[in-house]
Amino acid sequence: MIVGVCAVIALLIVAYPIYGIISDRQALTEFEDMNLQSIGAPASACQDVETKTATGSQDHVSPGTDIPYEDAPPAYGTHYDVWDGIERKFYAAGDRPDVGELVHNLEHGYTLLWYDETIADDDEALDTLRGLSSKFTDDDNFRNKFKVVPWTSEDGGAFPEGQHIAMTHWSVGGDGDPSGEQTGVWQYCSEPSGAALEDFMTEYPYTDSPEPDAI
Asked: Region Disordered: what ranges (predicted)?
């Protein structure tokens, strides 16, 4: 009996991650023939873009250093001296890089789409986010500097009331000159919108950042 129970437990341990992988793949099939603009809500689900003068370019600290970001989520600022590679596009709360690491990605021109705990508890919304992230798989093209990452209550304050998505970018004013006026850029949304994301990344491409040539 003990051997039998152990065998069942072992099978469950092996089967659970495999089931998760299969489920994720099945969830993405519905997005295969959809373009980015067609995924999720219309752009009207998002508020107007907000900007703020940015500081912290090349202001690096060691990983683990406590950095009190005043914005939820940050779009610029002091950051870790490491960053996350371009390969991974979607993260859950349990495996996401530290915020200080992701802010370094912003300095390199990434657009980060943050989702709050309301979205994290909504399987359909998460599938939509996975669908969005599946449109950025060409890692050789820096225009795919994009990541979907969670924002939790442990990270800082809440998004504006009724808003559960935040897109952020670290801009140098559109001309690619890092010596110009740098700004943090935000756009909050009530739900995921591929149309709004495409507009945001067109207006604020990776080239419009302090260090666009860094991966």
From this structure: 47-69
